[in-house]
Specification:
Elements: H1 7-12, H2 15-28, H3 35-48, E1 52-56, H4 59-72, E2 81-85, H5 90-98, E3 102-106, E4 128-134, H6 144-152, E5 156-160, E6 168-169, E7 172-173, E8 180-184, E9 198-202, H7 205-214, E10 219-221, E11 224-225, H8 236-245, H9 249-266, E12 288-291, H10 295-304, H11 332-340, E13 341-344, H12 352-363
Parallel strand pairs: 2-3, 2-4, 4-5, 5-8
Antiparallel strand pairs: 1-9, 6-7, 8-9, 10-11, 12-13
Helix pairs in contact: 2-8, 3-8, 4-5, 4-7, 9-12
Bound molecules: pyridoxal-5'-phosphate.
Length: 369
Amino acid sequence: MVKFLDLEKINARHAQQITKAMAGVLSSGWYLKGKETENFEKAFADFIGTKHAIGCGNGLDALTLILMAYIELGVMKPGDEVIVPANTYIASILAISRTGLKPVLVEPNPDTLQIDDNLIEEKITPKTKAIMIVHLYGQNAYSEKVGQLCEKYNLKLIEDNAQAHGAFFKDKRTGSLGDAAGHSFYPGKNLGALGDAGAITTNDDVLAETVRALGNYGSEKKYVFNMRGINSRIDELQAAILNVKLPALDKDNHRRREIAKTYFQGIKNPYIKLPGVSENLDNVFHIFPVFSPLRDQLQNYLKENGIETIIHYPIPPHQQNCYPEWNNLNFSITEKIHSQELSLPISPVMTDLEAATVVEILNKFKPQF
Ligand SMILES: *Cc1c(COP(=O)(O)O)cnc(C)c1O
C-alpha cells in the first residue's frame, strides 16, 4: 500500500521536539500573540526573504486580510477586479469575492498549469487593481512578463503561496516576488501545522501593520477600533510546532524533487502524460500531477494495486454551485485539466521503493475499452 500522503509519518520524525514544544506552550500560560508567534514570524520572514511575516488563522484568511488591507488603505474598493487563474483551488477565488472584489478568471498554460501570462493583458480593464498569481502544485507561477504587466497598469501583485513554500524564482523565494503573499500551513501543505494556520509576507510596512490590525478585530491599540477587522491569529501552539518544522523544509522539498525525478525518468505509458513543469528549484512538488483521458479508470486501477491517489481538483471553480454566474462560461483548458488530472503520491517520507512501485504499476496500466 502506497499512501498518498502519510501525515503521521511526516510528523513522527519531529515527535519528540513537537511534544516538548507543546508542553512548553502548555506550561507558559500564554496561548496567543506570544514568544512562539514572534519567533515564527521572524523565522518565516527570514526564510521567505521579506521584511515582515504576520501569522493568521489559515491560508484563506491570509489572502483575505491582504485584500481587506488594500481596501482599507484606499488602493482598492469593492467592485474592483482581481485577476486569478481559472484552475486554482477555490480559496484563492473566495478571498477575492468575500471582500467584495470581483475575481476575473484567466486560463492556465496547459504545460506548466500556471496562469498563462499571454492571456492576462486582454483581461485588464480600468477596474483591475491586482493580479493574484497562484504557485499551483508547488511550481513558481511568476514570470518577468507578469511583473511588467503589474508595472505597466499599476497593479498590485499578490501571491497565493499556499502550495509552494520554499520554491524559487531565480534567487528569490515565492512569497517574496510581489507586493504581498498569503501562505497556508494546513496540515497537508509542504510546511504543515497540526491544525489550521497561515501567514502573510510582505516588504510593505504600512500593509504589514494594517494586516496585523485587521486580523485582530481591526485594533492597533487594545479596545480601540479604527477599522472593522476579523479575528484571525495564529495560536502559540501552532507557531511552536511550525518553529520545529520550518528548519526541515528545504530538505523535505529536496526529497520531494527526488521522488519527482524518479517519476519523470521512470513513467513511460502512452495513456499517461507527465506534467511539463520544472524539475529545478522553482518547483517544490506539493503535488505531482499526471494526466490521462482515462483518468477515472487509471485511478481505480491504481487503487486496486494499492496506490492511493487524489484528484486536484474534480470540479473547476467556474462550474461550482457557489458561483452560478460563471456556470455557462467556457474555460476549455481548465476543464480539460480537471477532467484528466490525477495526483500521484509524493511526500518527504516516501521511500525509493514506494516511488519505484508507483512507476512500475503505472507502466503496466492498459486501458479496457
Ligand atoms: C490550501 C490552499 C489555500 C487555503 O489555505 P487554508 O489554510 O486551507 O485556508 C489557498 N490557496 C491554495 C492554492 C491552497 O492550496
